[in-house]
Amino acid sequence: MGIIVLFFIAGLWMADGLVLIVAPERMIATLRQSIIVAPGFLKWGGLAGLLGLVLLVVTQGIAYQPLWIIVGLSMVAKGIFLYAGSDVWRLRIVKWCLEREPVDYRIWGVGLCTLSVLLLDAMNWGRE
To answer: pTM to 2 decimals?
Structure first.
């Protein structure tokens, strides 16, 4: 079951990364609109904390272990902040994040795609 969740995480990272590389303006506009229509949508960011915990537990003993510890802890911290942080701080930080230049989003996109490929490599995906 854990390996399936890791494939899910890798797929999410790849999908998000590719969209940020190809169409960052459109993705950010959609995110802005979602926050305007449903501000409680940010609470779903708490799911990142749960996925970070899964990443920490399931990646024990696979390649790039220090990377997964750092990424998992970062995901947990982000998830806790988005779920339990004060509305003022949450909206302030999200607003700051959504006001970056397109090149900044593309760099994040490359990073997410890289994490995805490294996670798939650590799971020996595509090897015989």
So the answer is: 0.89
Q: DSSP letters along 7-53, please?
A: HHHHHHHHHHHHHHHH-HHHHHHHHHHHHHH-GGGGGGGHHHHHHHH
| Torsion angle of the four alpha carbons 14, 38, 98, 17, in this order, in degrees rounded to the nearest 10 | 0
CA 24 to chain centre: 15
By CB neighbour count within 10 A (0-12 exposed, 13-18 middle, 19+ buried), where does 68 fall? buried
7-13, long-range: CB < 8 A, 24+ apart:
7/120, 7/123, 7/125, 9/51, 9/54, 9/55, 9/119, 10/115, 10/116, 10/119, 10/120, 10/123, 11/116, 13/112, 13/113, 13/115, 13/116, 13/119
Neighbours of 94 (CB within 10 A): 17
* Spatial separation of the C-alpha atoms in residues 58 and 2, rounded to whole Å: 6
- Phi, psi at 76, each rounded to 5°: -65, -45
Give 62-84 pLDDT, tens digit per residue.
999 999 999 999 999 999 998 88
42 pLDDT above the threshold of 80: no
